[in-house]
Amino acid sequence: MKVADSQGISELCRPVIESFDCELWGIDFKLSSRTRLLRVYIDKSEKSIEIEDCEQISKQISSVLDVEDVIQGEYVLEVSSPGIDRPLFSSEHFRKYVGSRVFCKLRIPKYGRRKFNGILSGAGESDIEIEMDDESYSLSYIEIENANLIYDY
User: Fold this and answer.
1) Pick from 56, 80, 104: which residue ends a domain?
2) In terms of CB atoms within 10 Å, which of 16, 20, 60, 146 comes out highest?
């Protein structure tokens, strides 16, 4: 099986993660000329993620990915909590954090910019609304390269 996409990797990782009473928050797969980096973010609804959770899940995921031969060549696997500045991967994530400060980087510029740092004022099935500089900006999920919460201290 040669699945070099986040969706296929997610399908393989999810049962492992759930067997530890955790949930898959998201997958970030980066390819560069020198390395392949697979970041797997896990979360728990009732408790905090502990380092032991990450270690155990990392070992299991590594075994599954190696057996399935999902990623050709060498890669680095990181398993961690999304943290307080958690990345946002899905429309559900955005809906959960309406009213929070977010940072979004777009694939290509829109409204004359690629970076948006403001209050997430709405999240639908296909787009989000960000309030910044006394203006509202509508961004489609497919336009967003990456997004994360901004923790206000």
Assistant:
1) 80
2) 16
Q: Which amino acid is at 42?
A: I
Which CB contacts under 8 angstroms, 24+ apart, belong to 50-57?
A: 53/20, 53/22, 54/79, 54/80, 54/81, 55/79, 56/20, 57/16, 57/17, 57/20, 57/22
CB neighbour class for 37 (10 Å; exposed up to 12, middle 13-18, buried from 19): middle
How many domains is the chain partitioned into structurally?
A: 2
pLDDT digits 0-9 by tens, 110-127: 999 999 999 999 999 999
Cβ neighbours, 10 Å, residue 152: 6
Q: Which amino acid is at 101?
A: R
In the numeric block, the tokens 């900006």 are attached to 137
Q: Which residue has the higher pLDDT, 72 or 2?
A: 72
Residues 6+ apart with CB under 8 A from 115: 103, 104, 105, 106
